[in-house]
Design a protein that fits this description.
GO terms for molecular function: metal ion binding; phosphomannomutase activity. The chain is α/β, with parallel strands linked by helices. The chain contains 14 helices and 22 strands. The protein folds into 3 domains: 140 residues, Alpha-D-Glucose-1,6-Bisphosphate, subunit A, domain 3 (Alpha-D-Glucose-1,6-Bisphosphate, Chain A, domain 3, 3-Layer(aba) Sandwich), CATH 3.40.120; 216 residues, Alpha-D-Glucose-1,6-Bisphosphate, subunit A, domain 3 (Alpha-D-Glucose-1,6-Bisphosphate, Chain A, domain 3, 3-Layer(aba) Sandwich), CATH 3.40.120; 81 residues, Alpha-D-phosphohexomutase, C-terminal domain (TATA-Binding Protein), CATH 3.30.310. The strands form 4 sheets. Strands 1, 2, 3, 4, 5, 6 and 7 form a 7-stranded mixed beta sheet that branches. Helix 1 crosses helix 2, helix 5 crosses helix 6 and helix 8 packs parallel to helix 9.
Length: 454
């Protein structure tokens, strides 16, 4: 096993192919390094349904216990269930998952006590350095008294916590199709939905880390085709799709049409502001204009951030924000230790829909006000040069340029953001405008610049 871990230690997590890039031997070193860097005397560990996950989680536990930390294993869980355990037990945590990545991948999402994120600037680089050193020199000396390893089931407590935050007992009965994509939603949804006035139509609830039906990545339109068809066939009120580790949730309406994560962000923000008047709402710079508009209309304070959960969580902690949302369907709640939970966002949607008589398409129309391109990726030879070409084309025009995260160009009737991928030779474009024709015009202009070879 190579001592250079730069290929698998990313900005926010560990992720790579098993066993080619990492294995249980390395997982054990990560466990020891995690305890050393966090100075933890106790930790909690969970894992998803991938075939390699239980072995990697057990190895991480051995490494942690070797250095004297007591380990609580919560077994199969969603990522937000691990965050719940970290928050409610007050322990640093590690979740073994590669989210929506293909079956041969696995990874570790780590947090400090209270679900506080561990990223490159908050401990992950130190964990990597220790694991690299120990993979060359050998494992660190064991503690005089090794830690204990115990098992605990947190699913019922997790479900109870969520249902205490959103009251669904008085809603009208709803028929909801849920596509778990053979991921952890198939484990959590039955317990969370138990006792609620919901007629649940399950799809792909069998836990299978080889993803036999489709990738567990609902951000890709092809992966929600089955859900859309089933919602229409069942005459359901809505459909929900979860990603592999069930921390993101996507919504389709009664017609089978996707509801944009920005509209869900605005809807949930309005509900949270009704409970916490004047509160702060975080949104990343790619969410729709409608999000800050709705927040201000509801008496709240919108705060714009860079894309990425570490930036959102940092800003939430700094501002005391009550809620945050991203265009990628990550939703963050102060009531959930500032961590992201797609399940809690789903409960808010169900409560909002079931609390009135209209269809979901009508309910979200108030929050979906503009024409959007969605995220469009372009493979480019030189990200910096391509982005500079776009910037030069708009400098001096009657627009505003900012570089909080990539390049954002804003005009009275439209805006676009162009960002470089951190992991691939891609530029990601998002465009929004007051009407579809303007959006298409701006989209095509920018793409022509990005993809031109001269």
């Amino acid at each position: 096993m190579t001592a250079d871990l730069s290929q698998i230690v990313k900005a926010y997590d560990v992720r790579g192919v098993v066993p080619d890039q990492w294995d249980e031997t390395l997982a054990e070193l990560f466990g020891a390094a995690f305890v050393r860097v966090t100075d933890a005397d106790a930790i909690v560990i969970g894992h998803d349904m991938r075939p390699s996950s239980p072995g990697l989680a057990d190895a991480f536990a051995r490494g942690a216990a070797r250095l004297g930390a007591d380990v609580t294993l919560i077994g199969l869980c969603s990522t937000d269930q691990l965050y719940f355990a970290s928050g409610s037990l007050g322990l640093p945590g590690a979740m073994f998952t590669a989210s929506h990545n293909p079956a041969q991948y696995n990874g570790i999402k780590m947090c400090r006590a209270g679900a506080a994120p561990v990223g490159q600037d908050t401990g992950l680089s130190e964990i990597r350095e220790l694991a690299e050193r120990w993979s060359e020199e050998g494992a660190p000396e064991a503690a005089a008294t090794p830690g204990t390893v115990t098992h605990r089931d947190t699913l019922t407590d997790y479900a109870g916590h969520l249902k205490a935050l959103v009251d669904l007992t008085a809603i009208r009965p709803l028929k909801v199709v849920v596509d778990a994509g053979n991921g952890m939603g198939g484990h959590t949804v039955p317990t969370v939905f138990e006792g609620l006035p919901l007629d649940l139509v399950p799809m792909y609830f069998e836990l299978d880390g080889t993803f036999p039906n489709h990738e567990a990545n609902p951000l890709d339109p092809k992966n929600i085709v089955d859900l859309q068809a089933r919602v229409r066939a069942e005459g359901a009120d809505l459909g929900l799709a979860f990603d592999g580790d069930a921390d993101r949730c996507f919504v389709v309406d009664e017609r089978g049409e996707p509801v944009s994560p920005s509209a869900i962000t605005a809807l949930v923000a309005a509900r949270e502001l009704a409970k916490h008047p004047g509160g702060t709402i975080i949104h990343n710079l790619i969410t729709s204009w409608s999000v800050p508009e709705v927040v201000r209309e509801q008496g709240g304070e919108p705060v714009r951030t860079r894309v990425g959960h570490s930036f959102i969580k940092e800003e939430m902690a700094k501002t005391g924000a009550i809620f945050g949302g991203e265009h990628s369907a990550h939703y963050y709640f102060k009531d959930f230790w500032n961590a992201d939970t797609g399940m809690l966002a789903a409960l808010h949607v169900l409560a909002a829909l079931g609390g009135q008589d209209g269809a979901l398409s009508g309910l979200v129309a108030a929050y979906d006000r503009y024409a959007s391109s969605g995220e469009i990726n372009s493979t480019v030879a030189d990200q910096t040069a391509s982005a500079a070409k776009v910037r030069a084309a708009y400098e001096g025009a009657d627009v505003t340029l900012d570089e909080l995260d990539g390049l954002t160009v804003s005009a009275e009737d439209w805006w676009f953001n162009l960002r470089a991928s951190n992991t691939e030779p891609l530029l990601r474009l998002n465009v929004e405008a007051r009407d579809a024709a303007t959006m298409a015009k701006v989209r095509d202009e920018v793409l022509a610049l990005v993809r031109s070879t001269d």
